[in-house]
Every structure is written in C-alpha cells, then in structure tokens.
Amino acid sequence: MHSLKISAGVWYLGATSDRFVKQGYRPDRTMEEKFKIAAKIKGVGGLEMHYPTEVTDANYKFLKKLANDLGLKIVQFCPHLWVDPRWKFGQFTNPDPKLRREAIDLAKRTMDLASEMEAEIMVYWPAQDGYDYPFQMDHRQALDDLVGGLAEWADHNPKQKVVVEYKAWEPRAHILLPTIGHCMTIVNEINRPNLGINIDVGHALIMKENLAESIALTCRYQKLFHTHWNDNWKLFDDDIIPGTVNFWEMIEALFWLDEWKYDGWFGLDLFPYREDPALVVEETIRNLEFGYELLDRVPRDELRECFRTSDAIKIVQLQRKMLGG
Ligand SMILES: [Mn+2]
After folding, report:
1. Whether pLDDT at 1 is above 70
2. What are the chain's domains?
3. Could you tell me the pTM of the whole model?
4. Is 283 helix (H, G, I), strand (E, B) or coil?
C-alpha cells in the first residue's frame, strides 16, 4: 500500500463563496479551527496557506506552534497577490513599476516567513498577470517582467523552493503561462535549482493536457516539485474530488509518478461549495490510495510491455482487470 504525503489547503476548510453566494455556503472558521479540523483527518500530514490573508505578521508564530503541536507540516506557503485589488492589472507584470515592486516585495516577505515556518514550497500563481481584452497587455514587456520577477524572487533565498503553478484563465480571461510548455520554457530559461513547477491536475485538464505527458516534460528536467489534486469537466476549474470524472487520466498519472519516483506532496486543491470539506478531503485521500490499489491489481511490467507493443486490446483488458473484471 502506498503511503502518500498529503497536504490540505486551509482556504476551503471554512466558508467557500462563488460569485452568486458571496457570503459562502457555510459559516467561516478561524485559522485555529481549520488547523484542528485538518489534523483530525486521517492521512493529512501538512497544510497549505497564504500570506498575508490567512497567515499574518500577527499570527504566524502562533500558527507554526499550533501546527507543530498538531503534528502537521507547513507544506505550501504562497503570496496572496491576486486577492488584493491593488494588483488587478498584474502582479509581477503590473505596468506600474511601483505596484510591480510592491508585488515582488510582498513575495520576498512571504519567503522570509516561509523559512521561519519551515514551509517547503512557495507557489507563484500568475492569476492577475493576464489580460481580458486584445491590446490590453504589452506581451513583450510582460514576459520580461515575469521572468525578471521570478528570478529575483527565487534568488532572494536559494534555500527556499519556488514553484510556478499554471492555469489558463480565471480570474483573468487569459492568465500568462497557461500550459506546462509555457512554464517549462521560462523555468528552464531562468534556470535556478530552487525554481520548479507545481502541476495542478485540474489546470492541466482544462487545457486538454494529458497528465502523464505533462508529468514527463516536467520530470525530464527534475522540475516537478509539487502537485495539486482535484478534478473537473474540462470546461472550468471545478476543483471536485479527484477521479470522479477524468478517471483513467488520474490512474495513468499515478502510474507515471511512480515511474518517475516522485516523492513530493500530494496537495489537495479542492473547493467544496456544498459538501463538508473534511469529508471531501477524506474521500480524496481514499480515491488517490484506491488509484494505487487498482494499479497494483496488474503487474507493472504488463503495463510497461504495452509501450513496446502499442497493443490497445491488451490495454483494455488490463483496464478491466484493474476494475475487477
Ligand atoms: Mn492549485
């Protein structure tokens, strides 16, 4: 049986709002309550969070101690740039040099706290680094600014890992670096040992990427530092329980993570609006573990043999065998 390193995001353990039900579908909870809920879920070993919204200058020492007491690691720590209206026209690519500098400074401050909290990974999600209209962005300058900002941030503390997480749209109609190919190009250009990639399964799926292929491109350059798990209908970032819609893509991804000897975290980036978030986390962990149980029902060498023969008939038979047929 696989024992997976599972981390849960704190942002969905309280109220979750959409643009129709702005107050959220349930009452919010304090950070202390969220930490305690996560600690009670079997299999959760770490937490993911943002600064300066969820974690603040006032509470970070208390939260680090609380995490230690509960036996939880701080896995992912992220500058919450996209929730501040100051950066509505861009974070690291903001056309106003003063706002751009403020964004980079906040990222650096987040990194300073991350090392104090022993957070393993910092995420850069471009989010507001994007555009809604044609002619709205200076694309030449924006790439300069994004590459320069990421390099400066990564160099601020080379001991701290930074990952770029890609997503093609929302909140902007277009977000920069929408695919694994865009990300790998600039990560390889910047070429810092502490700069890598976070593959968010749902973000890959909405771009019609097959996960096994995105994982291969990332692992080829030893840049898969983190993963985010969820599922969707390939139209929108629904953030529902992994394996409920795109089942075989998930199973193939789990297979390839083993092949590449991925030893990082399985971050759960879910967004349950109507369901109890603790139960959604539990079922997600079960689905991921069950995925490996299904893979274990057939010899891995029989799956590898299919790469040599390209035998689709054999593949269908192995798939049925995994399902108990
Ligand atoms: Mn994510």
Report:
1. no
2. 6-298 (3.20.20.150)
3. 0.97
4. helix
